[in-house]
Structure formats: C-alpha cells, structure tokens
Write a structure and sequence with these properties.
Layout lengths: L12 H16 L12 E6 L5 H12 L3 E5 L13 H8 L5 E6 L4 H6 L6 E6 L5 H15 L5 E6 L6 H10 L5 E6 L8 H9 L5 E4 L11 E4 L10 H7 L18 E3 L20 H19 L5
Parallel strand pairs: 1-2, 1-3, 3-4, 5-6, 5-8, 6-7, 8-9
Amino acid sequence: MPRNIIDVTDLTVEEIDGLIATAEDILQNPAKYQDACAHKQLATLFFEPSTRTRLSFESAMLALGGSVLGFSEAASSSTAKGETVGDTVHTVSCYADIIAMRHPKEGAPFAAAQFSEVPIINAGDGGHNHPTQTLTDLLTIHREKGRLSGFTIGFCGDLKFGRTVHSLVNALSRYKDIRFVLVSPAELKLPRYVKEEALKKRGIPYRQTDSLDAVMSDLDILYMTRVQKERFFNEEDYLRLKDSYILTPEKLEDAKPDLSILHPLPRVNEIAVAVDKDPRAAYWKQVKNGKFIRMALILKLLDIRV
C-alpha cells in the first residue's frame, strides 16, 4: 500500500524535522534537486478553488524535474457527470506517480486513498485538515525563530472552520514549551474536539479571548486567518463576523520587536496592506516556503533520495 499524508499527525516529529532539513537543503542547493523527479508525474485533483496550494504543488514538482497533470475545479472532471470521487482517483492513479487532492468535504481524501494505487497528499478537506500548509507554517516558524519550541503563538480570527489552524495546533502541540492564545468571537472558537485532543490531553497551557489588543504584547508569533465565507450556511452571520479582527500598523505598536506575523492566505481585509512593509510580516515568506516543503514531501513519499 502506498503511504498517504491525510493529517499532519501521519508524520512523526522526527519526520517533520527531517522534511524541514530537506527543505532547507533545497533552498541552499536547488540545482542538486532539479532532476530528482525526472519522468515522474504529479496529479493535482482540486475539487475546490485554490491558487497558492495548487500552484505551489505544481511549481514544486516542476522544480524537481517532474511533470504535472490534473484539474482545478470539479466541473472540469467526470464527477460533473456523476462519477464517484473514488473512481476518479482510481483512474488518475493509473496515470500519475503521486496525487495532491483538495476537496470541500471533510474526510474525502481519506476515503479516496482507499482507491488509489499511488500516494495521496491531502491538499485541504473542508474545514478539517491542511497538512502541507501546516508543514509550510512549521518551516516558516523554524526559519524565523530558529526552533519549533519555547514560544507563545496566538491564533486570531476563524478558529472554528480554519483547517490550517486545526492542523497547526495539532502539530505544535507535539513540541516542547508551546503556549497557545486563541483569539476569536464566541461563534468562531476553536472546536472542542481540537482542544480536548491536542491541548487538554497533553496538558498544554492555552487561553481564550475575544480581544487581540489584550494579548498582543505576549505573542512571539501571530497567526491571522480570514473569516471564510464559503464555510458559512448563513450569509448574515458571515457579514456580521467578517470584520471581527483587522490587523493594522497601529495595533502592532505594543507587539514584540521580533514578533512573526503569519497568514495562510488568501487575505480579504484582516491584515491591512500597510502591514506588508513591517519587517515582522512573514506571510509572503510563507508563500515561498510552501514550494520547498512540498518538494521535500514529494521526495519522501516517492522514496527518492538525493
């Protein structure tokens, strides 16, 4: 059976550290990896719109000397004719060596993996998981802080539907001396099951608040998220909550000088464009890092050593 990455916890801490080390080596020695996946094919099966994740996977495979096939929306696949996701994946696994799959329904990549003859990477499933974004976040934190332990990280915005938040909380909870600050409106709090499994079970300190200003000075990392319109069933609720938190230069006046500001993107208006000029803004670095960590993951799942 091929190995799949559906949840970031499918990887051990040692494996994550190894992927980060490989990504760092790729950053330093890109020419060394340019033909590593020659004659290999990545299929990108995106049943939900994406810019960064899909293009990052494609860019990663091309930088490794491989090729890419796939589709960018469900309407352009045979699922529009009624074909099951399982049959679609089984078919594509006959053509490709590895698959990156995004789907709006939680658990769809896991179910699809039962039909695949090649490794499947979950590229985001509804509000559930987004393991490669988490690996991107971890690489970015490691590059910004030089470590993955001993800091306070604040998550701000949509913590209920934010799959990137759920995955990163799960991942960081396995490292030492991490403190979590959860900033959200009452309606968008981190789900109880994430707190129970990742935080309470491990005895990890966390606090919940609806005020970003009250905790800003305590944070070493601030992870902003957008309020996701596509996750709401009621547009009225979305409109009421969408501007709950907007990060501006003024709100950063009390922040630490070495704060790192992350965001999985896309942003709507939760980070003012003026913040982009702040040296603490690391979200564009995150975008670049996504390519390199995905290169490392592709190499691992294809068992290619360089």
